[in-house]
């Protein structure tokens, strides 16, 4: 198991993970917000 010796490294890795998760969740939500509901139901 990787144990960072510096707390700043762990904080940076956590922040990077949060950023990736936000982009991964917000981008599809943004696209779906502009799509007509009927198109979403059709697939």
UniProtKB/TrEMBL annotation:
Domain of life: Archaea
Positions of transmembrane segments: 7-30
The entry's keywords: Membrane, Transmembrane, Transmembrane helix
Protein known as: Uncharacterized protein
Organism field: Halolamina pelagica
Higher taxonomy: Archaea, Methanobacteriati, Methanobacteriota, Stenosarchaea group, Halobacteria
């Amino acid at each position: 198991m990787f144990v960072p010796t510096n707390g700043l490294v762990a904080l940076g890795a956590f922040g990077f993970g949060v950023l990736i998760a936000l982009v991964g969740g917000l981008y599809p939500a943004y696209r779906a917000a502009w799509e007509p509901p009927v198109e979403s139901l059709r697939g």
